[in-house]
Design a protein that fits this description.
Oligomer: single chain
Structural class: mainly alpha
Shape: globular
Strand content: under 5%
């Protein structure tokens, strides 16, 4: 496939998924508002801590198989082997996790209701892991329209089940039921959309090759995303359910607004894979991806935080301490803005066959994060526990970003930054505007610099060229994303 056509399909895929996110934002806003207002911060914190544990187990269960499927030759046996391995491995992992969870609850977490909620959520792990094969098949074929419809349907199903139960007073179990509805619709819909029917296939040699690659590829994710365990293992026992609830709400609001960066990252994987042997083009694609992610995140989060200072207290009710939530969100957003520049570097290092480098950095990062967050939460007043946790989260990422920069220089080439680092810092400062009499908004003056205007024009030109390439350089027979 010619490069202009590849870029066009990548941009079209981004547009499909972005449209899905835009539709989902309205649904998420209404659903999140209703459910969190009904269940309260403690129930929401309990659910969020358990969900973070499950999300980490899902990272372990997937074993980097998604990237293996992206890179390998497309054959029916490939998908069948992946399906059966993921199903059996995730079922075994769930059993071991429940045993370990019981021990942790008894000797460290000691929070009422946590074991029951976490167990109910973790039992959905095999369903989610088994759906990786058909979901990856859709992504590999760039069928982003189907992916968008499927994700929106799953999201709507979750709220359709959870909101009535929350109104009936089921508390945290309304959230659990909502989670299960989402899992079942998402997993079942993936098989239907991809027209995939698993058949028994088991080849020891192929399975070993898959697992060997998966372990090498997934090790960095296993180490890095062990940070998802920390709200349950540190913030919950040291700060309490309410602190986890406020932190989780801030995280959820950020995820809801983070639709464009997440979409761009998802589309970037197949693009990077096809450019992995062309370092100059790969570095340019990384720069465009990171700049687009960071600017999109800043453009959505800044107005939300400013308006939310006045609107959210009325929407969520007195039981939620919205200034604490927004202060936590401002710190998390500032971290995401800066890390957007470096997340693409970790993605690219994995694609070019250097996952062990990223894994080593993660092995250093996670203990640093655990120590920093534990100390911050322990020292902070209980009211500010979620803010202290977010501040430590920001601090712990800085050395990791520096290491990724040097790794890209060594294995791919000199990273292209342009004005992106300065933009990320300026936008991060601006997020604290409501907390400091709006003086942080002065940092946005950096976008008035001639260098900034030139860089913005360059990025817009590149994106337009990818969306509407000249006819002479594109593959006329390429189809649009399904």
């Amino acid at each position: 496939m010619a490069e202009p056509s590849l870029r066009r399909r990548a941009v079209e895929g981004s547009l499909y998924l972005t449209a899905r996110r835009l539709l989902g934002i309205g649904l998420s806003t209404a659903g999140l508002l209703l459910m969190t207002r009904l269940v309260g911060p403690e129930n929401y914190g309990l659910f969020a801590a358990a969900l973070g544990l499950n999300n980490y187990l899902l990272t372990l269960a997937q074993m980097g198989i998604r990237v293996y499927l992206m890179r390998s030759e497309d054959t029916p046996k490939l998908w069948h082997q992946a399906f059966w391995w993921l199903l059996l491995w995730s079922a075994s992992l769930t059993a071991f996790a429940l045993i370990g969870l019981a021990v942790a609850q008894q000797f460290w977490i000691r929070t009422e209701g946590f074991m029951a909620v976490a167990s109910a959520i973790c039992l959905g792990l095999p369903f989610t892991a088994a759906a990786v094969a058909p979901q990856t098949r859709l992504e590999r074929d760039l069928r982003y329209r189907r992916i968008a419809v499927l994700e929106l349907s799953a999201q709507a199903s979750g709220y359709a089940v959870g909101i009535p139960l929350a109104q009936l007073g089921y508390g945290v179990w309304a959230l659990v039921a909502s989670y299960w509805a989402t899992v079942l619709v998402s997993a079942g819909g993936a098989f239907v959309s991809a027209r995939y029917r698993p058949r028994w296939y088991w080849n020891a040699a192929e399975r070993r090759a898959m697992v060997r690659f998966g372990v090498a590829q997934g090790a960095s994710q296993w180490l890095y995303f062990s940070k998802d365990l920390l709200p349950a293992m540190i913030l919950l026992p040291l700060g309490g359910k309410e602190a986890v609830g406020h932190y989780a709400l801030a995280t959820r609001l950020l995820e809801m607004l983070n639709f464009a960066p997440i979409t761009i990252r998802r589309v970037a994987d197949p693009v990077y894979a096809r450019l992995q042997h062309e370092p100059t083009k790969l570095l340019r694609a990384m720069y465009l991806s990171s700049s687009a992610q960071m600017l999109a995140l800043g453009a959505t989060c800044l107005p939300f935080i400013v308006a939310g200072w006045y609107v959210l207290p009325l929407a969520f009710g007195a039981q939620w301490q919205i200034p604490i939530v927004l202060a936590t969100m401002a710190l998390l957003t500032a971290e995401q803005l800066l890390s957007a520049v470096f997340i693409t570097q970790a993605q690219a290092l994995g694609i070019v066959g250097r996952p062990r480098v990223v894994a080593w950095f993660a092995a250093i990062f996670v203990p640093h994060l655990a120590a920093a967050t534990a100390l911050a939460v322990w020292l902070a007043p209980s009211k500010w526990a979620s803010v202290a946790y977010a501040a430590a989260y920001y601090w712990a990422h800085l050395p990791n970003n520096w290491q990724l920069h040097h790794a890209v220089r060594r294995y791919i080439g000199q990273p292209v930054y342009g004005m992106s680092l300065l933009w990320a810092i300026a936008l991060g400062v601006a997020m604290f505007a409501p907390l400091a009499y709006y003086l942080p908004l002065l940092a946005l003056g950096v976008f008035a610099l001639p260098q900034s205007r030139h860089a913005l024009r360059d990025i817009i030109h590149e994106l337009r060229a990818a969306r509407n390439p000249k006819q002479g350089g594109e593959d006329h027979h390429a189809t649009t994303a399904d």
